[in-house]
Design brief:
The chain is mainly alpha-helical. The chain is built from 15 helices and five strands. Helix 4 packs across helix 8. It binds tryptophan. The site of tryptophan (TRP) has 14 residues, from strand 1 and helix 8.
């Protein structure tokens, strides 16, 4: 078994925390929106980055389907390792293994009103989407508070997330300020680090819907086989008014071009294709074939590494064990500080 021994010195480092709900395999939207950013961040020695698989949070709206969550944990770790996230440089861990997170959540619950949580736009939207309007599970309702625990437990000052997570960050910042003002300076106030481009914030689905999402069945997964990718790309939604090859086409809201913009490294060819398509005379099949080549080239090495890691489950367990040990130690230290600040740091060690 591999010994992973990083994290020797985390003093003076920038703590970064981010996480994913394990509700399925990761797709191109995750790759362009968050994984690529994480790959960059892990290369900077100044960063101490934690990546959390948020299984507790995933259970808040999947409590009656726990096997989906359990199975997705392994899939997501395989996706992480396949794209090149490196456990020698970062800490990957599972939320439910860190019991301090649940304890911190309990203390933070006192600092937030029900009305404040109800105003959270992301939560509101999810309540509607999931049909929870008349029967919101308390666990789900409180997940923004639990997310504040995730972030503060690791003293994260930077949280790389998509736009939809801004209300969670705002909620966390409020909790930190309230905590620090009542109990004294203890917690670190984080800021969000947003993706730098539009596709990064929200890659559309292959069907042209605004978001790539498993529930819409419009995803290209990192683990898709080559022929699946071809099939999905060749049946992608494009400009519906581009009926004949010679018609001028639109590239702005055209998912084929949005994907090309996100993944094509040959910028000159990309720009030429945009111009040609807008002018007319460039057929959709040709553009899709080119996009297919681009994606195949990007995804082939990822798929290969993913299959290799899949054969080496012992290594995956050693990654998780190391991640757990380091993350647990950090979170326990924060919890100790929190209890200390509140003044409930009772210890009944015998005096002698
Ligand atoms: N809410 C995030 C999502 O839905 C997942 C998440 C849980 C998270 N805890 C976090 C993200 C802490 C950033 C920081 O994708």
């Amino acid at each position: 078994m591999l010994e992973i021994n990083n994290h020797k010195d985390i003093i003076n480092k920038v703590n970064i925390l981010t996480g994913d709900r394990p509700t399925g395999k990761l797709h191109l939207g995750h790759y362009i929106g968050s994984l690529k950013r994480r790959l960059e961040l892990q290369e900077d020695d100044k960063n101490n980055m934690y990546i959390m698989i948020a299984d507790i949070q995933a259970l808040t709206d999947n409590f009656n389907n726990p096997s989906k969550i359990k199975d997705s944990v392994l899939e997501i770790i395989l996706d992480y390792l396949a794209v090149g996230l490196d456990p020698y440089k970062i800490t990957i861990f599972i939320q439910s293994q860190i019991s301090a997170l649940a304890e911190l959540t309990i203390y933070y619950m006192n600092l937030v009103s029900v009305a404040r949580v109800q105003r959270n736009p992301t939560l509101k939207e999810e309540i509607k989407q999931k049909g929870f309007t008349d029967s919101i599970p308390v666990g789900f309702f409180c997940y923004p508070i639990s997310q504040a625990a995730d972030i503060t437990a690791f003293n994260a000052s930077i949280v790389p997330v998509g736009e939809d997570q801004l209300p969670m960050l705002e909620q966390t910042r409020e909790i930190v300020r309230t905590f620090n003002s009542i109990y004294g300076d203890t917690l670190v106030e984080p800021i969000a680090l947003l993706p730098s481009n539009r596709a990064g914030n929200r890659l559309p689905g292959t069907d042209g819907k605004s978001k790539m999402s498993k529930s819409f069945d419009n995803c290209i997964y990192l683990s898709d086989e080559s022929d699946e990718i071809t099939k999905k790309v060749m049946s992608m939604y494009t400009d519906p008014n581009h009926l004949k090859i010679d018609d001028p086409g639109e590239v702005e809201n055209n998912p084929v071009f949005i994907y090309l913009d996100a993944f094509c490294t040959d910028r000159k060819t990309f720009k030429d294709m945009c111009e040609h398509y807008k002018k007319g005379g460039l057929g959709d099949i040709k553009v899709k074939k080119y996009l297919n080549d681009v994606l195949q080239e990007e995804l082939a090495p990822i798929r290969k590494r993913r299959n290799e890691y899949k054969e080496n489950i012992d290594y995956i367990y050693s990654v998780l064990k190391n991640g757990y040990e380091f993350a647990n130690q950090t979170a326990n230290k924060t919890l100790e500080g929190v209890k200390n600040a509140i003044g409930i740091d009772f210890s009944f060690k015998e005096k002698n």
